[in-house]
Amino acid sequence: MKLSILIVNWNSKDYLRACLESIRRTCADLSPQVVVVDGGSFDGCAEMLAADFPEVEFVQSQDNIGFGRSNNLGFQRVTGEALLLLNPDTELQPGAVDALLAGLQQVPDAGLLGARLLNMDGGLQFAAVHPLPTPWNAAMDSDWLRHRWWNRKGRLSATASFEVEAISGACMMMRAGTFCELGGFDPRYFMYAEDMDLCFRIHKSGLRVFHVPQAVVIHHGGGSSSTHFSKFAEVMIREALDFYFRSNHGRIHSCLYRVLIFLSAVSRITTRWLRGLGAHGQARASGRASILKWWTLLRWSIGLERWAADWFRSGGKTAVTQKALAS
């Protein structure tokens, strides 16, 4: 089965280099077609590819059109039967692609297959696999719930593929024909949740989603810091999920999601404030970041972060002011 690997770059030239080197190391026998799309970042990756990776097919988008639309653009160049969608901040480990290809070929109704994503220190990224979003699990946003999901039914120690609801968009293997039949990623998503939407549509089409633990991939972007807070990212994740509920389940789910975000925010702010009394150092900084995050999401849930909806609906064309991000 001929393989095509599609990567979307946005200001990730150094990560992209390491990713492509890992493809060379681990996929030499497969001779894959590799397509890289730069989503309007003009970060020098074109020059780097021409000099060091001449075998890579490069597509330059003149504008930042978003993750999903950039993948759809690059897909026009794809010639393989199997398609691997890969983030530039990933590094394939030996045997990873072979395991994904084997799973795709052995299970006729496999729609999507995902790898086991690891941090640089070897720790498992729990977001590699999770249930499809519901208003409840999306509003809880809980590490405890993610750990609990993985600890059930031997998932942490599994050595054979098992069926799941959703996988991370950092590494997705599928048939190119399936991606084409689904119309690619929904272009209405500029960033975030487009991978969940794709998983939802895979299930709706009658196909299945699998996690392949034998396929190990290092994902640099999967880590998080408890003391770091990005208002833009946190709000846009929720805006994308709100759109996911509205487009796939209707306005009632969207409204319920906002109500649950509000209640969750009130609970988290209160709990963190009480824990912070008398806290010092790292614990105090972590508590402050958590309170700021959930205060922002509380405001979003009641419609006080209108810039986010305007930005999302415009496909990233509306400017986000410093005033909006600081409010």
Fold and architecture overview:
The chain folds into 2 domains: 3-222, Alpha-Beta Complex (Spore Coat Polysaccharide Biosynthesis Protein SpsA, Chain A); 231-326. The longest helix is centred in the last third of the chain and has 26 residues, at 251-276. It has helices spanning 13-26, 45-52, 67-75, 96-106, 135-140, 143-151, 176-181, 194-204, 231-249, 251-276, 281-301, 306-313, 322-326; strands at residues 3-9, 33-39, 57-61, 82-86, 90-92, 110-118, 129-130, 162-164, 166-167, 171-175, 208-219. The chain is built from 13 helices and 11 strands. Helix 9 (231-249) runs antiparallel to helix 10 (251-276) and helix 10 (251-276) packs antiparallel against helix 11 (281-301). Strand 1 (3-9), helix 1 (13-26) and strand 2 form a beta-alpha-beta unit. The chain is an alpha/beta fold and 327 residues long. The strands form 2 sheets. Strands 1, 2, 3, 4, 5, 6, 8, 10 and 11 form a 9-stranded mixed β-sheet that branches. The chain has a two-stranded antiparallel ribbon with strand order 7-9.
List the total number of helices: 13
* The CATH top-level class label of the largest domain: Alpha Beta
What is the H level of CATH, i.e. the homologous superfamily of the largest domain? Spore Coat Polysaccharide Biosynthesis Protein SpsA, Chain A
Question: Which percent band covers the strand fraction?
Answer: 15-25%
**pLDDT < 50 stretches:** 223-228
Radius of gyration over alpha carbons? 20 Å
Described by the principal axes of the CA atoms, the overall outline is: globular
What's the CATH architecture name of the largest domain? Alpha-Beta Complex
What oligomeric assembly is this protein in? single chain
